[in-house]
Design brief:
By secondary structure, the chain is mainly alpha-helical. It has one domain: Arc Repressor Mutant, subunit A. A three-stranded antiparallel beta sheet has the order 1-2-3. A hairpin with a 2-residue loop joins strand 2 and strand 3. The protein is globular, with a radius of gyration of 14 Å. The N and C termini lie far apart (about 35 Å).
């Protein structure tokens, strides 16, 4: 999935933090992490689509995948 089509960065919105349909990506991730189901999120935020939630997860996965430098 190409989340870049869904995630936006706007300095005038949420301090430039990544957003999806004007909702912070972190908020979606926090809800998922606390056990809120995808179905409940979609019910509570009817403007979201299932692909938006997958986009948030893909964004998070990409941002924890960074090179680790080790010295031997």
């Amino acid at each position: 999935m190409n989340y870049a089509d869904r995630i936006t960065f706007d300095p005038e919105q949420c301090g430039g933090r990544p957003c999806i349909r004007h909702l912070r990506v972190k908020d979606v991730l926090d809800m998922l992490a606390s056990g809120v189901s995808e179905a409940q999120i979609l019910k509570d935020y009817s403007f979201l689509e299932p692909e938006d939630i997958r986009g948030c997860l893909a964004f998070a996965a990409d941002h924890v995948n960074y090179p680790v430098l080790r010295s031997f």
